[in-house]
Amino acid sequence: MALRRMPAPIRLRELIRTIRTARTQAEEREMIQKECAAIRSSFREEDNTYRCRNVAKLLYMHMLGYPAHFGQLECLKLIASQKFTDKRIGYLGAMLLLDERQDVHLLMTNCIKNDLNHSTQYVQGLALCTLGCMGSSEMCRDLAGEVEKLLKTSNSYLRKKAALCAVHVIRKVPELMEMFLPATKNLLSEKNHGVLHTSVVLLTEMCERSPDMLAHFRKLVPQLVRILKNLIMSGYSPEHDVSGISDPFLQVRILRLLRILGKGDDDSSEAMNDILAQVATNTETSKNVGNAILYETVLTIMDIKSESGLRVLAINILGRFLLNNDKNIRYVALTSLLKTVQTDHNAVQRHRSTIVDCLKDLDVSIKRRAMELSFALVNGNNIRGMMKELLYFLDSCDPEFKADCASGVFLAAEKYAPSKRWHIDTIMRVLTTAGSYVRDDSVPNLIQLITNSVEMHAYTVQRLYKALLDDISQQPLVQVASWCIGEYGDLLVSGQCEEEEPIQVTEDEVLDVLEGLLVSNLSTPVTRGYALTAIMKLSTRFTSVNRIKKVVSIYGSSIDVELQQRAVEYNALFKKYDHMRPALLERMPIMEKTASNGPTEIVQTNGEAEPSVVEAKHPPPVTQPTNQANDLLDLLGGNDVVPVIQTTVPTKPASAGGELLDLLGDLSLSGGPAPAPATSVPSSQPAFLLDGLTSPPLFNDIAAAGIPPMTAYNKNGLKIDFTFERANPNPNIAVITIHASNSTEADMTDFVFQAAVPKTFQLQLLSPSSNVVPALNQGTVTQVIRVLNPQKQQLRMRIKLTYTHKGSAVQDLAEVNNFPPQSWQ
Amino acid sequence: MFALVANQKVVRDWPCFGVVLGGSFLPRGGYTVLLFKMQFMLLFSRQGKLRLQKWYVPLSDKEKKKITRELVQTVLARKPKMCSFLEWRDLKIVYKRYASLYFCCAIEDQDNELITLEIIHRYVELLDKYFGSVCELDIIFNFEKAYFILDEFLLGGEAQETSKKNVLKAIEQADLLQEPRHEYFNVPVY
């Protein structure tokens, strides 16, 4: 019976031409389907002649986005074929269509093994390439021996490929690294640049993975220096020349290996000192290729133990980069300067004005780096000038920068403010220009700052009031303003301002504004809470108490449960507890900042009726758990952080306090005669309060650390910010607090945050404040991470987030790389 | 270095208190992520059509498609005056446009962006020498050759040969091995 022979399948290029004539997506799909059907039939017939052609066509269609999995086995057949053409397409197909998740790929192993021993080097090359690109751990284990053999061959074409294949094997199966050690013996004596380059890559890989290897290979430093020297000094070599530079790829790789070998080692660093200086001064900078080498050189100089002259040279190279017309070079310079600004601060300061100019660059990445670097360079001497530039930047920058810029401004202002008035003016400027981008925890921080600037109260409240008249859309501004008006409304009305022309405003006008906030659509529930509480506080500062009573009673039936509760309680204050009202609503005393494991802990030092500065008789215990502070804020209009850490600090009920506490919940207002609040940290404190956190409080430890916060993750409405500080006794421990917030309309429940860090670090996760991240940014979940970084390596972290959202389980993984250098240096 | 899979070695290195970490942590199960590495290279047209994709990390087809789609969109949205580097997810993207084609590489954190630009340029030079004034059509109709050339230049994301001459010589020799043997190796074989 004669087999029905199909006509020869169309050629690859003809198919490509045909498909390109398709005018619509539908037409293309039709052509593809037709051809796929033909190809499938051909595969079924086990046609050896045209298999290659068909797979090639399949690969083209795969690139267009169409499924091609039915060709996987065909690729394997091609690889097994004796024809070189078949193997070439077969291996290409394998690299494109197969991956290590499917068991099918293991069928390749035997073929690859045979081909690694093939008589034709180009076939061996195909096998090495495929193994080195996509070999799975199992394949690598099986074939490592063959690779090792080829690493010792004298054929440089194969040797260079074997070296990179070995790199891949080591990456997949690190335990196999040892077996390649003997073969590395003479790798650097090669003359062939391909082999040299790949050998350096292999050595780099081994040194990065194993401290023992690193120590072992340090003896290669002189040889590497010699090779590099020859490259620089040698005349024109047409084969490796790129714009007058001899083999820049090899130069860069050698520089990188030198960096790894020289790091932390005095002798090696000294041995490479001269060559680094030579490269730094002699490399031609007119083209990108020269700058690429200079860049690598700078990175190396900064990482090893180089002498100061060399370091200054490196920074100056970066300074010159900043002035380069090529924006790529400027970008790279800013990145490197950011890495070095902590260690070589003065040298970088010299380039400050150029850096500040980069804030005006058009490129987003350059702007961001310039901003980060600018903040790092702010100090007591340049604060006024720098702040002017940064505020200008804040005005005009893209929204994606505003939050970080605002936080940076606040931090810098806190550290270096030349005067209180300047400080408050700066804050006002940020709130009015970027108010909606300011972080949630800025509000309590600012409130605390304002409270403590006693002589500025009148000025502050006046300015905030005026700002409110202009604009009530920016919530953080509105919240701070409401709070201040509630506190200092009496100063506002009495026109006591010294710093500027006092405004004339009546009690009714003030109440109009606050009531306006309550009814406005622009106000969030949190803001309304602030406004209501502010109104209530004014009942002891203003005379028009009746109006206030009326407002409060209206909100007693508000739909918003939070407002309703407050209103009901305030109502009760008017009715049943009026005798307590003045004491309760009196002026807030000075709040001391304490060293803490997270956002500013606000500890009330003295509940007596003195609005003036009260000095703490003796340092109050630091570790007031977060939620106690939040309870304080909660009553007085603070943010709605979900308090979970159970406080075991004993509260001090005054004589009438029992009822007070019943009514107002767990509030530790030590209004009684007892001096300071809980003076001892009870031994029954939960176990997670560790050493380092119970040391005496230091004012402004957070600001002293000066590490800018960062956003670690922001996806699907879940945003996780990191704030930093150093645990006091041990500078190698960085204490990171995560703040998880949720901007979607549904809560995220069962929220679990997990983190992992590289091996040289140690990580400790304390308990989270809660497992629920409330919707619409109504609160944050905080959790403390302590990271021990004895080797001061760059901090990287992988985080895993799981939570339930709208009924479905969500899981995500992310890598966090944008840690500010101060957090790990 | 990170070791993502909780194999024996890694778990032993971590302290036993407080660390919360499960087994396979990332989709690249068992793959250790390095800091200097090219993860993938993409070539695409100004209309966003993919002309070449070389992946040096194991990812599913779905993930590759997603990454490609997002990255192509991001790069095409860049204005001409912007620099050739951008941060995307946790990678650095180095891209350069040559005529109607974008060459786009994803490298890791510690890698040198400027030398990556040189790598891209070297690849373009190789294509140019091989095809004789290469244009996008050459790469469309001879995509398999473009891959062969790339695979002689880079292996596992690293340069295996720094001499232009040697790469081209190897390709030439390999082409001659193709069957059926033709006098002019650029006559279509399949």
From TrEMBL, chain A:
Residues 705-820 form the GAE domain. It is found in: Cytoplasm, Perinuclear region; Cytoplasmic vesicle, Clathrin-coated vesicle membrane; Golgi apparatus; Membrane, Coated pit. It comes from the Eukaryota. InterPro entries: Adaptor_Complx_Large_Subunit, AP1_complex_gsu, ARM-like, ARM-type_fold, Clathrin/coatomer_adapt-like_N, Clathrin_a/b/g-adaptin_app_Ig, Clathrin_app_Ig-like_sf, GAE_dom. SMART domains: Alpha_adaptinC2. GO terms for biological process: intracellular protein transport; vesicle-mediated transport. Pfam families: Adaptin_N (PF01602), Alpha_adaptinC2 (PF02883). Keywords: Coated pit, Cytoplasm, Cytoplasmic vesicle, Golgi apparatus, Membrane, Protein transport, Transport. It is a peripheral membrane protein. One of its GO terms (cellular component) is perinuclear region of cytoplasm. Its main location: cytoplasm. Subunit of clathrin-associated adaptor protein complex 1 that plays a role in protein sorting in the late-Golgi/trans-Golgi network (TGN) and/or endosomes. The AP complexes mediate both the recruitment of clathrin to membranes and the recognition of sorting signals within the cytosolic tails of transmembrane cargo molecules. Belongs to the adaptor complexes large subunit family. This is AP-1 complex subunit gamma. The gene is AP1G1.
TrEMBL record, chain B:
It is found in: Cytoplasmic vesicle membrane; Golgi apparatus; Membrane, Clathrin-coated pit. InterPro entries: AP1_sigma, AP_complex_ssu, AP_mu_sigma_su, Clathrin_sm-chain_CS, Longin-like_dom_sf. Residues 38-177 form the AP complex mu/sigma subunit domain. Keywords: Coated pit, Cytoplasmic vesicle, Golgi apparatus, Membrane, Protein transport, Transport. GO terms for biological process: intracellular protein transport. GO terms for cellular component: AP-1 adaptor complex; clathrin-coated pit. Pfam families: Clat_adaptor_s. Subunit of clathrin-associated adaptor protein complex 1 that plays a role in protein sorting in the late-Golgi/trans-Golgi network (TGN) and/or endosomes. The AP complexes mediate both the recruitment of clathrin to membranes and the recognition of sorting signals within the cytosolic tails of transmembrane cargo molecules. Belongs to the adaptor complexes small subunit family. This is AP-1 complex subunit sigma-2. It comes from Oreochromis aureus (Israeli tilapia).
